Amino acid sequence: MQLYVLWNLAVLALTHTLPQLQRFSGNPKDDLQAFDSADEYLLQSLLPQGLDSSRPILILGDNFGALTCALAEFKVTSVSDSVVSHNAIAANLNALGRQAALVDPLAPWPAEPQLVLARIPKQLSLLELWLATLKPLLAKDTLVLLAGRDRDIPASAEAMISRHIGPTEKLLGWKKARAFVCQSDGKAPLPLPPPISWPLEGTGFTLSHFANVFSRQSLDIGARLMLANLPQGRFDKVIDLGCGNGVLGLMMASQYPDAHYSLVDESYLAVASARHNLSQNLPEVKADCVANDCLRGFTASSVDLVLCNPPFHQQQVITDHIAWQMFKDAFRVLRPGGELWIVGNRHLGYHLKLKRLFGGCKVVASDRKFVILRTIKRRTS
Predict the structure, then answer these.
(1) Do 177 and 43 form a contact (C-beta atoms < 8 A)?
(2) CA nearest to 183, candidates 125, 119, 135
(3) Could you tell me the domains of the chain?
(4) For 136, which DSSP code?
(5) With a threshold of 0.85, does the pTM exceed it?
(6) pLDDT, tens digit, 9 for 90 and up, residues 347-373
């Protein structure tokens, strides 16, 4: 399979604007670029005859909009599991005066795209979901290009691409990035990978997990500690922030079934998992499952309890700004007297942030690795 490196003129013009793109990560100390060598590799690897404005282009896993913005003069659909990524892509598109369709992994994708550009995710489960969803949509001439940073590409990615799509060519490495090119082999697509399900120990509940959900193989240690020390009291409105599979909200709802629950995560697939787990295990409970960037749009001073298991990374960047934003949003939406309960690694020092925001906190429980902190909103600003 011959691949030519010849940039479409419109793409070439936009690559000069790549340094102007913003990450919109919410981290004031973030001085990283909104693109990397894997994005550049994909943008270089276009069809020599150019692109057809009448046929769709599909982009998978764009982090901050480098790929989507570069091709947005065409009929682009950009798929991501991240609300934060979608927000950054939308902001960069708006700054350039361009538009594209932004959809989640479970939404319909366009059929017979002329070109597919994909960032290879670190999670093989997400790559498999993408490939299985993609195969039945491909035309005979659809070119599929996938790339990633060498350090982030799973060892079995090439074999998985070949198994789902067709014969795959690994291109030469470039600036610590690697790309793969393939076209459909015309064979019947493999079935979509089913959610992983397992019984939640000590309960009659079964938890199911779509691809890319944190700790989808088993209950994580932090959640296990929180489940052994759930809040007690009277709660009318409860938020599970960073809900993942929804296990914390589910177990709170089993104890306080009359409360209203909001399960929130920035991963669309996590929210879909949480929604499924609540509907299958406690269908009578009043609950909203929301894909959102922290608690954007939630009413101030309206909630009795926020449970939070914060992440400490964004894509491959280790950071504490996401936790800080979660805590600030929790403070805003909690009513006076409302409580925030956090489970996190002991070394992350969340108690310092809580002292700054709430005036202090109490250690509810701890083990060698994790700590549960409880704080109360005693002021309004």
Answers:
(1) no
(2) 135
(3) 9-182 (3.40.50.150), 196-376 (3.40.50.150)
(4) G
(5) yes
(6) 888 989 999 999 999 999 999 999 999
